[in-house]
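Lecture 7 notes. Example A: sequence first, then its structure tokens.
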Amino acid sequence: MRLFVAAVVAVSLLSGCGPKSAAPAASPTPTVTGLAAMSASEIVETSIAALKKAGSYRIKGDLVVEGLDVIVDIKVQASDAVADLNLGEFGSATVINVGGLTYLRGDDTFWRKGGAPAATVTARKGKWMKVKNGDRNDLLDFNVLTDPEKLFELEGVDKLVVSDSASLSGVPAIVLKDEGGMGRFYVAAQGEPYPLRLNATVFGKLDFSEFGSTFDIQAPPADKVVSG
């Protein structure tokens, strides 16, 4: 099963493999006995329900994509999201999905590596490109991030098993693992059962935080927007 996110991992670049991330320190037992008594699928469903209730959250991660280190920082507020992407030698970009519209701003390196001519790179400097619906692709489509039901791939969730427990930044967590060895899913065992970490053998690591926070996600000023 693919436990891991379509989300940032939905960046069209994500088709390669990366090194396995180190696991957090082990903790003797989960704190919440209710979760400890659940099956893996019940824990996942409970975690999704908690994320829905929170309404907003942040995802940060370090991924390895076809040998390229990619750093992602995504803030989700209801149906809106903003993503900062550091693509290493391919530059950096920010994507905003707000009110059903998508805006993209990249640095010079991002546009040059994407094949844009020099005049276009200059024209887009410091500007946001409004993305046409027909031009949307995996790099730009973060809608899956705003729906906890879609955020995690639940097909084959019956193949997840409760593995052990751990502590992430001092928060006790229950660890679920994929029987195929593709990675681990950490769920808070103290307080709300939020998803805390997705640790994928092939892609890297994504951490969840700032549940229920208020993020100011707005469309760019009109004078800073250019046509694609």
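Example B, a different protein, same format:
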Amino acid sequence: MKSKTRPGFDAVIFDIDNVLVDTRMSYLEAIRWTIEIYLTSGTIPLFSPNAKHGSPTVLTTQDVDDFKLLGGFNDDWDCCYGILVYLLSFPVKKRTLAALKEAINLRKFVQSVKHRPLGVAGIVKMFGRPSSVMIERVARIFQEVYLGKDIFEPAESKKSAYWKKRGLIHKEKLVFKKPILSQLKQMGVQLGIATGRPRFEALHVLKHFGILELFDCITPIDDVKKAERLLKQSLRKPHPYSILETAKKLGDRKRFIYLGDLPDDVIATNRAKETLSIVSGVFLALARNPKEALAEIQKAHPDFVIQKPRDLIDLVKKG
């Protein structure tokens, strides 16, 4: 039964990664593993790992968080590509992962970049486009690591070449639990998703957590890429395309919240304000260093910052 009190907002549009779902042990770890595997196998002059290890050694999770704050790397394949371009700009003499790790200072690099969002175009302008870094191979490694053999092979109709273990997707946890999402629906609020995930992965996780039926629509990266081919321009966040498309599906004569966790999300929402009645909400509870993440994201001028999922209920009620 719907609430008789009209909420202050008509719809909430969610990002999935590290907002709706905790992906710190899945997507972020998949980025770290993709970098490691790419550097130690394939066509580039190889880096040799010092010894067998159970986790990636070149990058920390904080490194990945810092790099994403540069903006323009919402797509994790692009994020892996950008990091590899940066890493391969170092002319290390001893080709080991340990030597590479010692040579880099990713945090210092991130702090030195003034123009944001940087994105692939920006990092290529800084360091060039190494012929040894191929986005197709980056994507293949990432998908194998993230999905694991049990999901990757049936979905892609290919044999796993780089990763024979269980996929990191199984380590994800739902953050905005079903009772909170159900309460929003009972209040008469529509729910949508604008995500950098492919449709298959987005639907898989929503079905897995039993919340798919609560969402009215979804705009995955597949839809964005299709529009990019037609319009011949980049439409990924911080471009507002995915938010605008989701709002259109929900009925754009409404008042929206977009809830994300990165500067790109805030910038995209603020750009969407030219067309929609929308505010940018930020959820940073899963950031590795919430204080630093907040300082960085404040530069993009979000409208709201919420500390816990239930805060969203109060925000929607007040308007």
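Note on Example B: The longest strand covers residues 277-283. The beta strands are 11-14, 21-22, 173-174, 190-194, 217-219, 255-260, 277-283, 304-306.
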